[in-house]
Design a protein that fits this description.
This protein has 311 residues and is α/β, with parallel strands linked by helices. 23% of the residues lie in helices and 30% in strands. It has six helices and 19 strands. It has helices at residues 18-29, 64-77, 139-142, 158-167, 187-195, 289-310, and strands at 6-14, 34-37, 51-52, 62-63, 81-83, 87-93, 96-101, 105-113, 117-119, 135-136, 150-154, 173-177, 199-202, 205-212, 216-223, 229-233, 236-239, 243-245, 275-277. The strands form five sheets. Strands 1, 2, 5, 6, 7, 8 and 19 form a seven-stranded mixed β-sheet that branches. It is elongated. The two termini are 27 Å apart. The relative contact order is 0.18. Bound molecules: NADP nicotinamide-adenine-dinucleotide phosphate. NADP nicotinamide-adenine-dinucleotide phosphate is lined by residues 54, 122, 154-160, 162, 179-180, 184, 206, 240-243, 287-288. Residues 54, 122, 154-160, 162, 179-180, 184, 206, 240-243, 287-288 line the site of NADP nicotinamide-adenine-dinucleotide phosphate (NAP).
C-alpha cells in the first residue's frame, strides 16, 4: 500500500448494516476510538426491505428504513465516527491492521468485518444489458416504475416471496418463476403468496434469456421437466436467486468457505488474530437482522477483550 494520509483507530468496522452498527454501538459505548467505513447507506440491506416482521420489539413490524435510521441515531449518540468510503484492501503489519480505501490508509488495533452480501446474478443473456431497463434486484427501490404492469419474479426464497408480495401493491400481475416444485421461503410468506390473487407460480422452470429492444419485453422460459420452451411477455424482471458474501477483497488474508463466507470461531474471531467478522458475510446457519445484531455485539465484545489482553 502506498501514499495517502494514515489515520489511526482502536477499532475499524467495515460495513454499516445491522451487524456493523451494533458493533459500533458497543465499541463506542466502551469508549474505544472507532471508525465505521460504509460506501452505501447505513442500514445496508435493511434499507431496501419494506417491512421487517421478525425483529423483536416491534409487534406490528417496522420498515427497514426506520429501523436503519433508529440504529444509526443510537450509534451516533455514543460518538461513532462514520466515513462514506469503500474498503478495497486489508493487510496485517505485525500487530497493526491496515485498511485501504479509495483515498485513505487507516491503521487499527482490531478490525470487525461486516460487509454483508450482494445479489447473485442469474447469468443469462439480456440480464446485464437490461439492468435498470426492466431488470431489477430491488422491489422496494423500483416497484413504483411498474404500476399496472405484468412482472416476473425469479427465485423461491424469502427475498423472492417478500419482494413479490410488495410488488402486488403496484403491478397488475406477478408470475414467480421457480426452478423446483416447492418454495424455499418461510411458510408464512408462502401462505401469503398462495393466497394473493395477483401472484401466479410457474414451477420447474428457468429463465433462459431476457429479451427486449430499449427495455425488457419478454423472457424465454424452459420447463425443466418437459424441456418445453416458452416466451412470456413482461415489462419487468425481478431477480432474487440468492446472495453471495462481499469478501472478495479478503481472499488470501483469512479462511473463507467455498462460497466465500468468512469462517470464525464462536466469538466471531476469524483465522487472523484480532480480526472479527459479524453478520451475513460470516459462515453461519441463519442470516437475519436478529442474528446480525447478535454477531455485532459478540464481535465488539471480543474485540474489546482482545485489546485488553494486548495491554
Ligand atoms: P435464498 O434463500 O438462497 O433463495 C434463493 C432462491 O433462488 C432459491 O429458491 C433458489 O432455488 C433460487 N435460485 C438460486 N439460483 C438459481 C438459478 N441459477 N436459477 C433459478 N433459481 C435459482 O436467497 P434469498 O431469498 O435472497 O434469502 C437469503 C437469506 O436472506 C435467507 O437466509 C433468507 O431467510 C434471508 N431473508 C429473510 C427475509 C425475511 O425474513 N423477511 C427476507 C429476505 C431474505 P432453490 O430453492 O431450488 O435452491
Amino acid at each position: 500500500m502506498e501514499g495517502g494520509e494514515i489515520k489511526k483507530y482502536d477499532v475499524i468496522i467495515i460495513g454499516g448494516g445491522p451487524a456493523g452498527l451494533t458493533a459500533g454501538l458497543y465499541t463506542s459505548r466502551s469508549r474505544l476510538n472507532t471508525l465505521l467505513i460504509e460506501i452505501g447507506l447505513l442500514g445496508g440491506q435493511m434499507t431496501t426491505t419494506e417491512v421487517i416482521e421478525n425483529y423483536p420489539g416491534f409487534p406490528q413490524g417496522i420498515t427497514g428504513d426506520e429501523l436503519s435510521r433508529l440504529m444509526e441515531e443510537q450509534t451516533k449518540r455514543f460518538g461513532l465516527e462514520v466515513v462514506s468510503q469503500e474498503a478495497v484492501e486489508v493487510k496485517t503489519d505485525r500487530e497493526t491492521k491496515v485498511v485501504k480505501t479509495d483515498d485513505t490508509i487507516y491503521h487499527c488495533k482490531t478490525l470487525i468485518i461486516c460487509t454483508g452480501n450482494e445479489w447473485q446474478k442469474l447469468g443469462v443473456p439480456g440480464e446485464k444489458e437490461f439492468t435498470g431497463k426492466g431488470v431489477s434486484y430491488c422491489a422496494t427501490c423500483d416497484a413504483a416504475f411498474f404500476q399496472d404492469c405484468q412482472i416476473i419474479v425469479v427465485g423461491g426464497g424469502d427475498s423472492a416471496l417478500t419482494e413479490a408480495l410488495y410488488l402486488t401493491k403496484f403491478a397488475k400481475e406477478i408470475t414467480i418463476i421457480h426452478r423446483r416444485d416447492a418454495l424455499r421461503g418461510t411458510k408464512i410468506y408462502q401462505e401469503r403468496v398462495f393466497a394473493n390473487p395477483k401472484i401466479k407460480l410457474l414451477w420447474n422452470s428457468v429463465v433462459q434469456e431476457i429479451k427486449g429492444d430499449s427495455v425488457v419485453q419478454s423472457v424465454l422460459v424452459k420447463n425443466l421437466k418437459t424441456g418445453e420452451m416458452g416466451e412470456l411477455e413482461t415489462e419487468g424482471v425481478f431477480l432474487f436467486v440468492g446472495l453471495s458474501p462481499r469478501t472478495q477483497f479478503l481472499k488470501g488474508l483469512m479462511k473463507l468457505d467455498g462460497a466465500g463466507y468468512i469462517i470464525t470461531d464462536e466469538n466471531c474471531e476469524t483465522s487472523v488474530k484480532g480480526i472479527f467478522a459479524a453478520g451475513d458475510c460470516r459462515k453461519k446457519l441463519l442470516r437475519q437482522v436478529a442474528t446480525a445484531v447478535g454477531d455485532g455485539a459478540t464481535a465488539a465484545f471480543a474485540a474489546e477483550k482482545f485489546l485488553e489482553a494486548r495491554k
